[in-house]
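Audit log entry. Action: structure prediction of a protein-small molecule complex. Ligand: coenzyme A. The ligand was supplied as SMILES and no pocket hint was given, so placement is left entirely to the predictor. Protonation state taken as written. Sequence taken verbatim from the request; no trimming, no tag removal. Recorded inputs:
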Amino acid sequence: MTASVQGIDALTQAVRGQRPTAAMRVGIDAVAVSEIERSLASFGDRFVQRMFTPHEIHAAKGSAERLAARFAAKEAAIKAFDMPEAAIDWRNIELRSEASGRPSLHLYGPALASARALGTEVLSVSLAHEQGMAIAIVIGVPENNSPRANTASPKPRARKHGKSAVTNHKSQINQQGS
Ligand SMILES: CC(C)(COP(=O)(O)OP(=O)(O)OC[C@H]1O[C@@H](n2cnc3c(N)ncnc32)[C@H](O)[C@@H]1OP(=O)(O)O)[C@@H](O)C(=O)NCCC(=O)NCCS
């Protein structure tokens, strides 16, 4: 499709009160475990606390390899959603692990806003670590592909106790438990 046809498409959707169709997003990153080990040796707990959430620290069980995988997931999310790295608090991109070991990715604050600005919300993440390397891949799915979405312009979310939509989303995610 040419740029001009895309432009007409977006204009038509705007006139109909619809959002332009968002694309699927993908990001991938590889991190050498030795990089994390070096940061741990240089900065110790200060590095861990600045980069990782309590859930991530707990799930990593003190393994530099697991921390490397979680760091790779954050970098992969930054790539997938064009996040301004300098403005992102690393803990606003959180990798959670289910009881089965399956990981899931959760965004908060400005990181969530970056994904939403692209019309992307439903995330999928996969990790691997082997032989001194950790790899993560993150996929974002357009929110209008998610079962609870529709094509109409989004209704403003009800504000609870004066909180913003982003704050409400964050607390919903946090209610999912660890
Ligand atoms: C899941 C599995 C494929 C991981 O493969 P591996 O070669 O041991 O390890 P990799 O480095 O490739 O991947 C490790 C990552 O896989 C992810 N993982 C673990 N279990 C997972 C699952 N059920 N689904 C998706 N991803 C999973 C985790 O993110 C893990 O990283 P982490 O330990 O830092 O959180 C392997 O454990 C397996 O084959 N398990 C059998 C299936 C299973 O046990 N299912 C759970 C049923 S309760």
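Audit: result stored. The first strand starts at residue 25 and ends at 32. The first helix runs from residue 3 to 15.
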